[in-house]
Amino acid sequence: MDELLLHCCCAPCLAGCLTSLRAEGIQPRLFLYNPNIHPFTEYKSRRESLSLFAANEKLEYDTDGDYGLVHFLKTISPCMDEKPERCERCYRMRLQRTASFAAQKGYPSFSTTLLISPYQDHEKIRRIGEEEGKKYGVEFLYRDFRPFFREGQARARAGNFYMQKYCGCIFSEKERYSDKLTQKRKDEANKNTEQQLRTCMSLRDMFSRLILLTGEEGLEKLSHKSVLIFGLGGVGSWAAEALVRSGIGKIGIIDHDTVCSSNINRQIEATSLTIGIPKAEVLKKRLLEINPDCKITAYDKLFCRENAKTFGIEEADYVIDAIDTVTHKLDLLETVCDSKAVLFSSMGMAFKMDPSRIKTASIWKTNVCPLARVVRQGLKKRGFKGDFTVVYSDEEPVKKRESVSPDKKPVNGSIVTVTASAGFLLASLVLQDVFGKEN
Question: Are strands 358-362 and 389-393 parallel, antiparallel or unpaired?
């Protein structure tokens, strides 16, 4: 597709849509037309923020007319008390103008950032877009951008762009406050329900099947162990899940990254609803839903030698290393080996397809694994003389398919059956060590 005219309402919505469109090789031209936004100060804030974002992304844009509030009010006046029809008229007003402008300027297709919002009626937008496109002889490009909603918000927030608090029109502004009251009542009801559930649920109930293996004394021992997990990707996230489900009482989870759509195929915290949210934050919420009594500390930061003391490594019983970046990985390995914590480290799981080839060994006795080789070389250059157990795969890497991310960085192929198996094996090493020492 050579050219796409993209109707835009705000910077956060544009940011998410842009990620999706550029993945298809589409560089859109923007069209700003939103007479529904109320009041004028809100309209101005959104327009200025959108213009600034467009400039940063080197995107060209067109506008049609000024504020246009009178036109909006005339359009929706026959149905102001009926929200579905009111919203439909608003959709049509904006999409009709976009289709008309696309035809006038010779764009073969058009679309809208409205399609990123989980609060908008996609079926209506699609139907109206196709109707208006047919009328003006241009194609309406439908894409479900909703999986990129959180990512767009995160990008806009990181860039300090204006973040609106409601849909835009005067009616949605009113609903914003009435909805808050409704949500407050729901939150209070949910809080009471959670308290009742926790009163009825004990650790013994939760781990009754585990107790059949460990005994109550074993469960008690697990509940007093602390584990730090560095890296919450395809390996580390599953290790955290397994440990919480196995009764570990204290866990620290460390990752500086946010969830993106490409994480969904292998990371337990990654879903279409968590894109753009810090991984540590999302995973902490999930783990507490599994066991509210587990003491979980989330660190939304990158480990490096300079901040090593901020994670409590000296107080931890176990450390799981699932970091990808070699320099930081080496720094962590050295730091942990100088402490009393038991270290288990994950080597490379990218470009592997067979989970049955995953093994454990001393770092000095692995074979085939390219990352393990790089780690050994790095440790030798640093004069490291210690030892620790690693999880690695002796499967020859499958043939690479060249790919790069939107920011031009190399992308490694990976599959959840391998990464999750490695995470579970790391968690198992912790559990076996706990009971091995007890026995």
Answer: antiparallel
Tens of pLDDT along 13-54? 899 899 889 888 899 999 998 888 778 888 888 888 888 988
- Is the same domain home to 386 and 243? yes
Q: Which pair of structure tokens corresponds to residue 56?
A: 């940063």
* Three-state DSSP state, 113: helix
In a domain, 264, yes or no: yes
Q: How far apart are CA 77 and CA 265, in angstroms?
A: 47
**Nearest CA-CA partner of 6 in 24, 35, 33:** 33
CA distances from 176 to 173, 187, 262 (A): 5, 16, 33
Structure token pair of residue 169: 């029109």
d(CA 77, CA 318) in angstroms, rounded, equals 65
**What's the domain range around 342?**
215-438
The CA-atom distances, in angstroms, between 146 and each of 33, 141, 151, 179 are 21, 15, 10, 22
CA 313 – CA 339 distance, rounded (Å): 7
Residue range 99-114: mean pLDDT, rounded: 94
Count of the separate structural domains present in the chain: 2
Torsion sign, CA atoms 58, 59, 60, 61:
negative
Both tokens assigned to 71: 């036109």
Position 61 scores a pLDDT of: 86
Q: Average pLDDT of 186-194?
A: 56
Does residue 13 contact residue 161 with C-beta atoms inside 8 Å?
no
Over the stretch 290-318, which tens digit does the pLDDT of each residue have? 998 899 999 999 999 999 999 999 999 99
Among 280, 284, 285, 384, residue whose Cα is nearest residue 334: 384
Q: Where does a domain end: 145, 175, 205?
A: 175
Q: Coil, helix or strand for 88?
A: helix
Q: Is 2 exposed, middle or buried (0-12, 13-18, 19+ CB in 10 A)?
A: exposed
Burial 406-429 (b: 16+ CB within 10 A, else e): eeeeeeeebbbebbbbbbbbbbbb
What CATH number is attached to the domain comprising 219? 3.40.50.720
Q: Which two tokens stand for residue 415?
A: 């599959």
Confidence band of 206 (pLDDT split at 50, 70, 90):
confident
